[in-house]
């Protein structure tokens, strides 16, 4: 039995609409005749690596393969929140909101700590 079509023929989709679809990225890409390959991304390295970098790198590499990429809550709790907290620690900033994991909060920014002298 063939799979039902994900994309409607003749309809145009914006980039963000693909991420709102309740389908696995692999299924959407297969319908477009493409495949998804997850691999380590090699970026330029800093000479002075911030504290916590090794932990965060290991944490993300291990958990990227375990997280359901179509679940916003999974991404937020398992990938985004720990990353944002490490950035906060490295830059002496704090999240603007008390809960990084609250699904109603769409905009999580950083606030710099003011050093009192």
Write the element-wise H/E pattern from the N-terminal end onward.
Answer: HHHHEE
Low-confidence stretches: 105-117
Broad shape: elongated
Please outline the major beta sheet.
Answer: 2 strands, antiparallel
- Separation of termini? 71 Å
- Count the beta strands: 2
Structure, explained:
This protein has helices at 15-20, 25-31, 53-64, 72-91, and strands at residues 93-95, 110-112. Strands 1-2 form a two-stranded antiparallel ribbon. The longest helix is centred in the C-terminal third of the chain and has 20 residues, at 72-91. The termini are far apart. Mean pLDDT is 75; it is low at 105-117. The chain is elongated. Helix 3 (53-64) packs antiparallel against helix 4 (72-91). The chain folds into two domains: 1-37, no CATH class; 41-112, no CATH class. By secondary structure, it is mainly α.
Blueprint (SSEs and pairs):
Blueprint: H1 15-20, H2 25-31, H3 53-64, H4 72-91, E1 93-95, E2 110-112
Antiparallel strand pairs: 1-2
Helix pairs in contact: 3-4
């Amino acid at each position: 039995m063939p799979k039902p079509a994900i994309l409607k023929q003749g309809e145009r989709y914006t980039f963000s609409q693909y991420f709102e679809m309740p389908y696995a990225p692999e299924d959407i890409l297969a319908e477009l005749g493409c495949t998804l390959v997850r691999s380590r991304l090699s970026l330029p390295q800093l000479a002075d690596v911030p504290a916590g970098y090794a932990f965060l790198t290991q944490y993300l590499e291990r958990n990227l393969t375990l997280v359901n990429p179509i679940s916003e809550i999974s991404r937020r709790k398992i990938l985004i929140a720990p990353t944002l907290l490490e950035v906060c620690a490295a830059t002496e900033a704090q999240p603007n909101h008390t809960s990084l994991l609250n699904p109603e909060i769409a905009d999580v920014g950083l606030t710099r700590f003011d050093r009192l002298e």
